[in-house]
Amino acid sequence: MMALRERALVSPQSVPSLPQHVRIQYDPVRQAFAVLSPEKVFWPNDISLDILRRCDGRSTVGHIIADLAVDYDAEQEAVAADVIAFLQEWSDKLLVKL
Amino acid sequence: MSEPLLPPIGMLAELTHRCPLQCPYCSNPLELLKANRELDTQTWLDLFSQAADLGVLQVHLSGGEPTLRRDLEQLIAGLSARGVYTNLITAGVGVAEGRIVAFAEAGLDHLQLSFQGARPATTDRIGNHKGGHEKKLETARRARAAGLPLTINAPIHRHNIEEVPEFIDLALSLGAERLEIANVQYAGWALTNRDQLMPERAAVDRQAEIVAAARERLSGIMNIDFVPPDYFAIYPKPCMGGWARDAFMVTPDGTVLPCHAAQTIPSLSFERFGPRSLAEIWADSPAFNAFRGTDWMQEPCRSCDRREIDWGGCRCQAMAIAGDAAATDPACAKSPIHARMAMLIDEAQRAAAVPSTDTPFVYRRIGVVTEPA
Which residues of B define the annotated binding site? Predict the structure, then answer.
């Protein structure tokens, strides 16, 4: 298994997943969800967590956006911009696989 | 306390001081513990369990060389059962066939492999171990074959700073997700060898440019973490993220420390796991509370607006250079003795300019410094 040798760009057709070195875990001590990665622990807010949980290796970005727009009762366009920017940032840090 | 006590997030477990390499900047103390002082399997498992209860989410298994512990698979399995993110920090030399797969099966999350050089001759010379480089390459391949995520760790100093571009290519060729370009910290063995290890200013500047460019070029391809060299800095690093703030470490005999070099501060005494629980040590140990938060600070730290960014920098460096563990880290431009850092750099350059016979380093090994009775 080789790491990606090219920077991946988010598109509505991308199917994001969490790479093997990243995992979301509930921390009973702090009563919060943590994202664990080599050397770093992240504490995602509710929206980030909702995006990351949908990165299941099956759903497309387009599907995730539509899903979140319904859940948050928000305009799909606004949601799309936020989700794509978030996933691109996390992909660039190798925390999300596209 | 200036802020409430939070549970620790990370723990570094130095399972053993034994190591097949003899790097002259080893972060182990000068007085290395022999195998008969190491905690047994069950005690480590108890300690890990208490760490998880306390809130530790990530454990870095280190040494010395942690794979010299024959019970490493068991220790990884114990951590994995508690959901702790487990990172193995190895030199990757002499790891028996099949063990990397066994670590992965036991639940290891990530493997960090050190390379002393990007070229075989450099790796072998710095670690004082012939054939080391080839063995490391093999360990990297096995880690990838076992499906383990990989970080390459490159400790940087005068003798390999020009190899930084090659380290980047090496890490890419090995399929690493992450590369640490970590300039050595001058404590312990590295302090002993400081004049031999200190890079030249021009090389440090070149390195910073190379790393910055590579980070941009490799965005989304490979993460590069850069630990710049303290002596050339303007501001100090937030050592350990702040003393006893969210991480701690444990030595092979179960002594619990706020950082690697904490035992170089003579006014502090440290407690061992066993007689006291981890929770008690974390909350109550006078050594942990000595430099926690900001109340202990003197000027210029006390009124500095960066006091909760860098937490005063490194206490051990303050001890080593200012002679006062509560002083501002001399790496900081606001330290009254910051100029001493530049003098130490110059001194090292002069020492390096004198052609020596062949005694470049004091290689780390047990017994160079005798253990106290």
Answer: 19, 23, 26
Contact yes or no for A1 and B175 at CB 8 A: yes
Give the pLDDT confidence score for residue B371 in this predicted structure: 40
Each residue's pLDDT tens digit, B260-269: 899 999 999 9
- Domain contains A82: yes
> B266 preceded by cis ω (within 30°)?
no
Structural Rg of chain B based on CA atoms: 20
Global confidence as pTM = 0.94
Structurally, what CATH architecture does the domain formed by B10-232 represent? Alpha-Beta Barrel (3.20)
Number of folded domains in chain A?
A: 1
Q: What is the ipTM of this complex?
A: 0.90
Contact A13, A62 (CB under 8 A): yes
Comma-separated ranges of CATH 3.20.20.70 domains in chain B: 10-232
In the block, residue with structure tokens 């992240």: A42
Is residue A71 included in any domain, yes or no? yes
Q: Which two tokens stand for residue A53?
A: 């949980």
For chain B, the first-to-last Cα distance in angstroms comes to 37
Chain A contact set for B7 (CB, 8 A): 29-30
Do the Cβ atoms of A38 and B151 come within 8 Å?
yes
Q: Confidence class of residue B373 from pLDDT cuts 50, 70 and 90?
A: very low
Tokens of B94: 């002499």
Question: Residue A86 sits in a domain of what CATH number?
Answer: 1.10.10.1150
Contact check, Cβ <8 Å, B151/A1: no
Residue B123: pLDDT band with limits 50, 70, 90: very high
The answer as to whether A89 is a domain residue is: yes
- One DSSP character per residue, B116-161 reads S-SSHHHHHHHHT-TTHHHHHHHHHHHHHHTT--EEEEEEE-TTTG
Task: Beginning with the edge strand found earlier in the chain, give each strand of the sheet holding B110-114 in spatial order.
Answer: B223-227, B178-183, B150-156, B110-114, B85-90, B58-62, B10-14, B247-250, B256-257
Q: Which of residues 173-192 of B touch A (CB under 8 A)?
A: 175-178
Alpha carbons A1 and B147: distance in angstroms, whole number: 6
* DSSP three-state, residue B166: helix
In a domain, A42, yes or no: yes
Residue in chain B closest to A10 (alpha carbons) equals B220
Best CA proximity match to A72, nearest among A59, A83, A60: A83
List the binding residues of B for [4Fe-4S] cluster.
19, 23, 26
Closest CA to A43 of B296, B9, B37: B9
Host domain of residue A67: 23-93
> Cα–Cα distance between B256 and B282 in angstroms, integer?
9
Residue of A39, A95, A96 to mutate, testing the B interface (most B Cβ within 10 Å of its Cβ): A39
